[in-house]
Amino acid sequence: MAAGGAADAQARFGHSVKGLLTEKMTSCGTDVIALTKQVLKGSRSAELLGQAARNMVMQEDAILHSEDSLRKMAIITTHLQYQQEAIQKNVERSSNLQDQLSHLLK
Q: 67-87 burial by CB neighbour count: b if 16+ within 10 A, else e?
């Protein structure tokens, strides 16, 4: 009977070990799934950061282009002011000439 009790205890121990191994395998599987999700999340974060960097470079290029356009517009504005002043002086001169001509013709 002692041999039967030992065999019975050994069978229970075997079942207990199998149960623990099953639990450990399930736990490891769950950990692998969690790790995979985390890696995928990190990969997506890196992708988003890359896209943000590309967008920032595009915005920087647009800002530089805008600055260049503003500089050119300022130069054009200055030239237009010079032209407007020259036209105004010519109008004043022509007005004076018209006065002188009308005075001479009288």
A: eeeeeeeeeeeeeeeeeeeee
